């Protein structure tokens, strides 16, 4: 049924004697029954001077005649009185209220007559209150019945057509949308057309109740019946489009209004401009803005704010700034919303300084920034690495008495972690915990960092704290810990965590399975990889590009590239479309295995499928030739790539630099380094590490440290790999003091040693006779939750044997077994050879 169609439940026309309204219709609570307002010159029509007071003789006589035994019914007596006093609204209303309070049966008819009296007499506020009390008090009387009664009673008393409008508006104001539509339908059937204001009230009620499709239908049928509309109608319909998430439809209503000859006002332009900004289409919004000014309309502060925000969002900062200047020059103040939009635009462009200058201007003007403003600026500082300013803004917020939101806390923590200021990050976290601010995202940020830094034990403790704090972990929380366990090769703990996820109702996702499969690949447990694939499919989780590439790349890294290559057609049958990354993994795997011919064959297959190689593809081949001691071939390939117009990346240059350094050809390595700079590329820590390693291999520690100094001067931070290289070189040169100083500096700068760094440190200390210091480093590994490897134990066991401390050597062997580390051939060589040496010594030979 259409919005304006006839209701199938319309009440038939009943005799007046049996049309009744229950007493509850007039029994609203005291809060809904305000005192009768006296008319004012502005709102009510004047009352004749000969008005009879409530207790004048005529009313007293009628009240005294209220006898239940009389043949006339209560409703008939009330109707008789109202018709008699229809030009005396005060007496009519007071008598109606008196009769209602007596509890006698009242019907729709007295209500309709009184409504006519009040509206015709100009007692509009009283009419509204009467309708509101009546409609809220009872819902048994159908709106169509009340409309029928209004029509019938209008024949017997003076009335104003506004009575119908007031009834319709009342239904709308008390959120009775369906009843308003029913009343409207009956009015239209009776050729009664409520005014545009009443119809707008119904549309507004539909908007408030999110009845968007109903509002569109109501509007279409009004237009089909030729009813007029105004700016308010158009504004309501445009807001329907905005709330419905269809801003592109708003301008259609606006153009229909203009084409219909209705001149839009400032509010209509504000809404249509808002719709253009929501698309977002700042260009169209500015065109409407110009059109508006062309009609002589003065833009409001709201309109300027909308336009500035839209232009800033779409990176039209020049236009956004121009609008801001125009707004200020027209006498309108720069408000916080507009200023925040500009700051966000500046931050998106990387112009943090201008955004901060604008913040200073805002503060000077006495405008107090809010959480959103600081969120924008702190997030900008995070993206562009300005950690100190991010924390300064955080402190400024607190000085202003503002409680930073969890989003801001998370941004500052991410800033610290990005800059390896882990201590500051965790101090801020503890401060936030005291205020109850952290949410699951806060914990996830920290756990992600801890797991990727190899500090799994601390990540697990944080996970437990999160649960104790009542913060429910999600799949991201579990995926972080899974990554940590898999990185440490502890697949038993990873499998247990996966089981706990399902028990706790945390649904694993594609990342969960990808992480587990990657872990099993590294452990060379390929049966479990296939099991994970089958479980994943059984749960209805579709393998995506990430999953397939993870499996293929994992098999390739595990030295099973041929098997990965055979998997590819099977995966393609499941809908996988291999990309450049897929073929790069296979090519890289074959190159690592020394199968250059297979790598070239894969490259040719890639070309046949129409997949263009990228710089990583060529870098793999360059790296392969360099590792095969074919640096000259790598250089030729590099020149060929250049001729094709491809821009080589840092990794390609570094591959050849490493090749030259391995050949002890530092002259050509430095020459290529200069070419890298000329190509406009900025060398990273990996390139410097290659050159430093080259000098160390030549036992030129002086040149190595000079290069390290140059790197720092150029603003390239020293990472764990470079610290490890310098520590290893210093120990090989016998300089234990410098090595330990570098180790302390590494920790102070927030870089945590991995097993490679600890291996170099322990081995170097043992070789230099510092066994006690080496053993302390082993305990340091436990504290930092870094799992020792077999090589570390072999080094310590060997050294203790040489020192004659057989008991400690065998204890370390047992400890290694307890940690789940399997001794290798070197371990047994040490144990056997040293045992024989010990027996010989005992025998005195």
UniProtKB/TrEMBL annotation:
GO MF annotations in UniProt: mRNA binding
Swiss-Prot/TrEMBL PPR repeat ranges: 160-194, 195-229, 230-264, 265-299, 300-334, 335-369, 370-404, 439-473, 474-508, 509-543, 544-578, 579-613, 614-648, 649-683, 684-718, 719-753, 754-788, 789-823
Keywords: Repeat
Pfam families, per the entry: PPR, PPR_1, PPR_2, PPR_3
Family (UniProt): Belongs to the PPR family. P subfamily.
NCBIfam families the UniProt entry points to: PPR (TIGR00756)
PANTHER family, alphabetized: PENTACOTRIPEPTIDE-REPEAT REGION OF PRORP DOMAIN-CONTAINING PROTEIN (PTHR47938:SF7), RESPIRATORY COMPLEX I CHAPERONE (CIA84), PUTATIVE (AFU_ORTHOLOGUE AFUA_2G06020)-RELATED (PTHR47938)
Name this protein carries in UniProt: Pentatricopeptide repeat-containing protein At3g54980, mitochondrial-like
Gene: LOC120108774
């Amino acid at each position: 049924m259409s919005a304006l169609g006839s209701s199938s439940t319309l009440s038939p026309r009943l005799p007046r004697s049996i049309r009744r309204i229950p007493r509850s219709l007039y029994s609203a609570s005291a809060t809904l029954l305000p005192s009768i307002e006296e008319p004012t010159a502005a709102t009510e029509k004047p009352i004749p001077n000969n008005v009879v007071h409530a207790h004048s003789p005529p009313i007293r006589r009628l009240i005294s005649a209220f006898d239940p035994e009389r043949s006339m019914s209560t409703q008939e007596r009330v109707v008789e009185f109202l018709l008699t006093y229809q030009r005396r609204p005060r007496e009519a209303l007071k008598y109606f209220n008196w009769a209602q309070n007596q509890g006698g049966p009242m019907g729709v008819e007295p209500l309709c007559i009184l409504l006519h009296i009040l509206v015709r007499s100009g007692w509009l506020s009283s009419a509204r209150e009467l309708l509101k009390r009546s409609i809220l008090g009872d819902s048994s009387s159908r709106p169509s019945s009340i409309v029928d009664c209004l029509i019938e009673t209008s024949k017997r008393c003076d009335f104003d057509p506004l009575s119908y409008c007031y009834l319709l508006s009342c239904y709308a104001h008390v959120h009775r949308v369906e009843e308003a539509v029913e009343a409207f339908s009956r009015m239209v059937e009776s050729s009664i057309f409520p005014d545009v204001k009443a119809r707008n009230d119904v549309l507004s009620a539909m908007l408030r109740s999110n009845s968007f499709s109903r509002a569109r239908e109501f509007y279409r049928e009004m237009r089909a019946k030729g009813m007029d509309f105004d700016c308010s109608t158009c504004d309501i319909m445009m807001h329907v489009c905005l709330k419905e998430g269809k801003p592109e439809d708003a301008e259609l209503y606006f153009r229909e209004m203009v084409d219909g000859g209705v001149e839009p006002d400032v509010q209509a332009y504000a809404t249509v401009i808002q719709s253009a900004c929501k698309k977002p289409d700042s260009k169209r919004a500015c065109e409407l803005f110009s059109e508006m000014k062309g009609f002589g309309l003065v833009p409001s502060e709201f309109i300027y704010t909308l336009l500035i925000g839209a232009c800033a969002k779409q990176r039209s900062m020049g236009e956004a700034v121009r609008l801001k200047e125009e707004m200020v020059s027209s006498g309108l103040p720069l408000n916080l919303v507009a200023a925040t939009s500009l700051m966000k635009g500046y931050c998106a462009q990387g112009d943090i300084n201008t955004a901060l200058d604008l913040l200073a201007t805002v503060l000077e003007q006495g405008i107090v920034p809010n959480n959103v403003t600081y969120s924008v600026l702190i997030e900008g500082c995070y993206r562009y690495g300005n950690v100190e300013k991010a924390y300064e803004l955080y402190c400024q917020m607190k000085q202003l008495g503002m409680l930073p939101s969890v989003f801001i806390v998370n941004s500052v923590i991410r800033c610290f972690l990005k800059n390896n200021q882990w201590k500051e990050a965790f101090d801020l976290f503890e401060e936030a915990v005291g205020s109850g601010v952290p949410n699951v995202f806060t914990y996830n940020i920290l756990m992600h960092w801890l797991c990727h830094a190899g500090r799994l034990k601390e990540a697990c403790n944080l996970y437990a704290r999160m649960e104790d704090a009542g913060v429910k972990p999600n799949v991201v929380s579990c995926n972080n810990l899974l990554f940590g366990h898999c990185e440490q090769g502890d697949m038993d703990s990873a499998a247990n965590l996966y089981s706990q996820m399902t028990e706790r109702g945390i649904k694993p996702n594609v990342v969960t399975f990808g992480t587990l499969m990657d872990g099993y690949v590294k452990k060379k447990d390929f049966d479990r990889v296939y099991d994970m694939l089958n479980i994943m499919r059984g749960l209805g989780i579709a393998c995506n590009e990430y999953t397939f590439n993870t499996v293929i790349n994992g098999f390739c890294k595990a030295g099973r590239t041929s098997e990965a290559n055979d998997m590819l057609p099977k995966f393609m049958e499941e809908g996988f479309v291999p990309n450049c990354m897929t073929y790069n993994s296979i090519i890289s795997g074959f190159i690592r295995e020394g199968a250059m011919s297979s790598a070239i064959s894969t490259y040719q297959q890639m070309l046949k499928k129409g997949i263009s190689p990228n710089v990583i593809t060529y870098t793999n081949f360059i790296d392969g030739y360099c590792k095969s001691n074919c640096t000259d071939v790598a250089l030729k390939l590099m020149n060929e790539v250049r001729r094709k117009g491809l821009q080589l990346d840092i990794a390609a240059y570094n591959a050849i630099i490493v090749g030259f350094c391995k050949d002890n050809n530092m002259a050509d390595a430095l020459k290529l380094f200069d070419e890298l700079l000329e190509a406009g590329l900025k060398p990273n820590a990996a390139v410097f590490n290659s050159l430093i390693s080259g000098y160390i291999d030549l036992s030129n520690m002086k040149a190595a440290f000079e290069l390290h100094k140059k790197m720092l001067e150029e603003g390239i931070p020293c990472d764990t790999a470079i610290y490890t290289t310098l520590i290893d070189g210093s120990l090989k040169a016998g300089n234990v003091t410098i090595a330990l100083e570098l180790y302390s500096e590494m920790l102070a700068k927030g870089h945590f040693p991995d097993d490679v760094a600890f291996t170099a440190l322990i081995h170097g200390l043992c070789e230099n006779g510092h066994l006690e210091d080496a053993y302390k480093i082993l305990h340091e590994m436990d504290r930092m939750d870094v799992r020792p490897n077999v090589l570390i134990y072999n080094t310590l066991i060997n050294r203790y044997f040489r020192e004659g401390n057989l008991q400690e050597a065998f204890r370390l062997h047992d400890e290694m077994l307890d940690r789940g580390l399997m001794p290798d051939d070197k371990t047994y060589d040490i144990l056997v050879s040293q045992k024989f040496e010990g027996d010989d010594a005992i025998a005195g030979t």
